[in-house]
Amino acid sequence: MGSIRKLNNHVNIVGSNIKKFREQQQLSQPDLCRKMQLLGVNMYIADIYEIENNKRLVKDFEIKAFCMALEISFDDLFNDTDQFFEH
Length: 87
Fold this sequence. Notes:
CATH superfamily of the domain at 15-73: lambda repressor-like DNA-binding domains
CATH architecture of the domain at 15-73: Orthogonal Bundle
CATH topology of the domain at 15-73: 434 Repressor (Amino-terminal Domain)
Oligomer: single chain
Radius of gyration: 13 Å
Strand content: under 5%
Order of helices and strands: HHHHH
Helix content: 40-55%
Number of helices: 5
């Protein structure tokens, strides 16, 4: 099995923003799971935990579903992520 590619030791760059928006909306991880499942994306609480804590990759369709579930734009989701790139 191959190793996971990382960007400056990060598996994803949006996990902290997902957590931020989830908490701003006073949603628990189980609440967000339910919203994702209503969109057809089966996700477990452990998945959300791992994404928010930079332990799991985020698939492209999950990014779209997170935006829809949290009612945010792609720009919102990727806000302040330039810091992950070395200049």
